[in-house]
Specification:
single chain, mainly alpha, 74% helix, 401 residues, Methane Monooxygenase Hydroxylase, Chain G, domain 1
Length: 401
């Protein structure tokens, strides 16, 4: 009984520690955004209070905070959406106060009119919700205390501060943002392949069911990657980064394309294992888990050339260890060998090896492929600064330790 209690205590402490680490990481990831929102709120309040006297300019800090409450690549668009909703809501609230005597009736009419107009002009929910909130604040909290033009000016100041902070002073570092999304996707791929590899050692029909259940794990990270690509291209068009060198972001966009192909190759590898026999499963299990380790290495630090070198080296070791198959293999075995080669190939492409060199590297005919250093990005995107690291060769194939 004491041993069980001790084991439960250890399990409880481990759970608390893991939860604390997760919470700390989550707060750390949001901390820059929180601090930027606080700065925006204070600036908007100070500017609006100094420009428009004899009223409480709370619309300004609210507008700034809501506009900045978006991912780095969407803050500018979020400010425009917010401003649209605030304008619609304030105008709807002013109109409802003019035609309705009671505050309750004015609020109901204002919300109805604001949401209807917002839905007619823009179907995005953030605009509709902000229009309704602005109408409520205008009719219930403010009433007829100050003219509507003051509230519109407050909203303009708040959105303007948000645009100044997000587009000029603290613009989104898109390459860093995209790499965080790529690392999350690689982590999910590694987790899926590791679980599939473990399932291959389990006998019976349950093993196939476990593999099938794992195939849906990549749907969310794949969707995040596609969304990140669209957001980055939109940000280049609409933000100050277009004034400088968008090359690093466009290069990272190509990397995401390769990562999406890598995810599809991982799915193909996992899918082919379902139809294999027991002995083939056991033979393939360490290969699949080895590929999972490779993806985990990349996910740890995508900005490290050394990590990419190590990942390519281990991927090649796993692929060559499994072999290319023989002509008389059955279709399932042939497909599995092909899937392993596809995963190794996509890992090399993702690491930066040129497409025309991949086959020669896989076959061992090219011992000195080039793995370029990951592209860097300046802190201020409008500056034309792009480091050009020296051409560095893959150390393993030169006999370097």
């Amino acid at each position: 009984m004491g041993a069980m209690f001790t084991g439960g205590g250890r399990s409880g402490r481990h759970l608390v520690r893991a939860t604390a680490i997760e919470v700390r990481q989550r707060v750390s990831s949001y901390l820059p955004q929180i601090l930027l929102a606080v700065i925006g709120a204070v600036l908007a309040w100070a500017i609006a209070g100094g420009l428009v006297h004899d009223h409480s300019p709370f619309f300004a800090p609210i507008a700034a905070v809501i506009a900045l409450n978006a991912s780095g690549g969407e803050r500018g668009a979020n400010a425009v959406r917010l401003l649209t909703g605030v304008f619609i809501g304030i105008l709807a609230g002013e109109f409802s106060q003019a035609v309705a005597v009671q505050n309750d009736l004015a609020m109901a009419l204002g919300v109805l009119l604001a949401m209807t107009v917002a839905a007619a002009f823009n179907t995005e929910r953030v605009v509709i919700g902000q229009a309704a909130a602005s109408a409520i604040l205008t009719t219930i909290f403010i009433g007829g205390g100050s003219p509507g033009i003051d509230r519109l000016v407050d909203a303009l100041i708040g959105a303007g501060v948000a645009l100044l902070l997000s587009q000029m002073l603290f613009p989104a570092r898109l390459v860093a943002m995209l790499r965080r999304i790529e690392e999350d996707a690689l982590g999910e791929m590694a987790h899926m392949l590791d679980e599939v590899g473990r399932s291959l050692t389990v006998e019976g029909h349950d093993a196939s069911a476990q593999v099938v259940n794992r195939l849906g794990d990549l749907s969310r990270p794949m969707a995040e990657l596609s969304k990140a690509r669209e957001s980055s291209l939109s940000t280049i068009r609409l933000s100050t980064i277009r004034w400088g060198d968008p090359g690093p972001v466009l290069d990272e966009d190509e990397v995401i394309e390769r990562l999406i192909l890598l995810g599809e190759s991982c799915l193909f590898l996992a899918r082919t294992t379902v139809a294999m026999g027991t002995e083939e499963r056991r033979e393939l299990a360490p290969i699949v888990r080895g590929m999972a380790d490779v993806l985990a290495i990349l996910a740890d630090d995508l900005s490290s050339r050394e990590a990419r070198e190590q990942a390519v080296e281990q991927a090649l070791t796993a692929a060559r260890g499994y072999g290319a198959g023989v002509p008389d293999d059955d279709p399932v075995t042939h497909a599995t060998h092909l899937a392993v080669e596809m995963v190794a190939t996509d890992i090399m492409l993702f690491a930066g090896i040129r497409f025309e060199e991949v086959e020669d590297v896989l076959m061992g005919e090219l011992e000195d492929p080039t793995i370029p250093a990951p592209a860097q990005e300046p802190w201020l995107p409008w500056l034309r600064w792009r480091p050009r690291p020296p051409d560095i060769r893959f150390g393993r194939f030169r006999g370097r330790d």
